[in-house]
Amino acid sequence: MQTALLETRLGSLSPTARGKVRDIYSLNEEELLFVATDRISAFDHVLGSGIPDKGRILTQLSLFWFDFLKDTVRNHVLTADAAKFPSTLNPYLDQLEGRSMVVRRAQMFPVECVVRAYLSGSGWKDYQATGAVCGIALPAGLRESDRLPEPIFTPAAKINTGGHDENISFEDVITAVGADNARALRRLTLEIFEKASKHAESRGLILADTKFEFGTIDGEIILADEVLTPDSSRYWPADAYSPGGPQPSFDKQYVRDYLESIRWNKQAPAPSLPDEVVARTREKYLEAFRLITGRTGL
Ligand SMILES: N#Cc1c(N)ncnc1-c1cnn(Cc2cccc(F)c2)c1
């Protein structure tokens, strides 16, 4: 079993931002190092085991989507070629190769730009409680995982404590970023989603929802963070789609089933995973990469 990289050790460089599974390091005033680890989270907890190559697979997926979308929106990537990284990183290239990118520092909008074409997760919870999601009223009688009449922009406020982001209204976005930026973020989010979901559909996948993070560089809105990865999106196998309940996660179902099989108390420390669950989950990430990119190798 290959070893998973859970933490990067970059000498005196320490993360300037840490997510559950990815870390950002400040290189200088203009550049950041964006690293995707092999950590995996489930039920909002980072598990004790990593998935070998997960970070590399998801980085290559983001790079595929950045290129796929380059005629629609600029992005923050400067290079993902480790040979072009600042020489100060040379001692650490074995940890960084394939799973990291040097990106332009942007002024990030304090909004998670979520778009949903299906009713799932917090959207389903909000709909059950109010008949709406982010203030957008939906038809009555929808079931969990039903396809929505059209994709909807359902923004969330970034909660830095690592908890759930809080769904907010479009008016809240206007308050946070101004009307012009709010309209631009909504338009870009829906436009990108339309293109990506059509591509996913052509590859046998339902892109149920996803989250984008945008920022500005020299006053221009750019697409940042990770993009359309299984960590930032819900991908469902189209041939198994069955509305009326939760859908199998394309990438994390083995993990979820295992955690439920051991009746894990989510207040307890996150458990490690059996080798078989790790191996099968790694295969699912590779399958997502192959399906989405059409490539066989990383
Ligand atoms: N991408 C990007 C980015 C950029 N290009 N310029 C300035 N800031 C960011 C930035 C800051 N936080 N995040 C989210 C985030 C949190 C935790 C870990 C992560 F890897 C990522 C993104």
TrEMBL record:
Top-rank taxon: Bacteria
One GO CC term on file: cytoplasm
Pfam families reported in the protein's UniProt record: SAICAR_synt
EC number(s) per entry: 6.3.2.6
Lineage of producing organism: Bacteria, Pseudomonadati, Acidobacteriota, Terriglobia, Terriglobales
SUPFAM superfamilies linked: SAICAR synthase-like (SSF56104)
PANTHER family with a match to the protein in the record: PHOSPHORIBOSYLAMINOIMIDAZOLE-SUCCINOCARBOXAMIDE SYNTHASE (PTHR43700:SF1)
Enzyme class, first EC level, given as a word: ligase
Family: Belongs to the SAICAR synthetase family.
Keyword list, A-Z: ATP-binding, Ligase, Nucleotide-binding, Purine biosynthesis
Gene Ontology molecular function terms on file: ATP binding; phosphoribosylaminoimidazolesuccinocarboxamide synthase activity
PROSITE patterns: SAICAR_SYNTHETASE_1 (PS01057), SAICAR_SYNTHETASE_2 (PS01058)
Reactions listed under catalytic activity: 5-amino-1-(5-phospho-D-ribosyl)imidazole-4-carboxylate + L-aspartate + ATP = (2S)-2-[5-amino-1-(5-phospho-beta-D-ribosyl)imidazole-4-carboxamido]succinate + ADP + phosphate + 2 H(+)
Protein name: Phosphoribosylaminoimidazole-succinocarboxamide synthase
Residue stretches making up the SAICAR synthetase/ADE2 N-terminal domain: 17-269
Gene that encodes it: purC
Pathway the protein acts in: Purine metabolism; IMP biosynthesis via de novo pathway; 5-amino-1-(5-phospho-D-ribosyl)imidazole-4-carboxamide from 5-amino-1-(5-phospho-D-ribosyl)imidazole-4-carboxylate: step 1/2
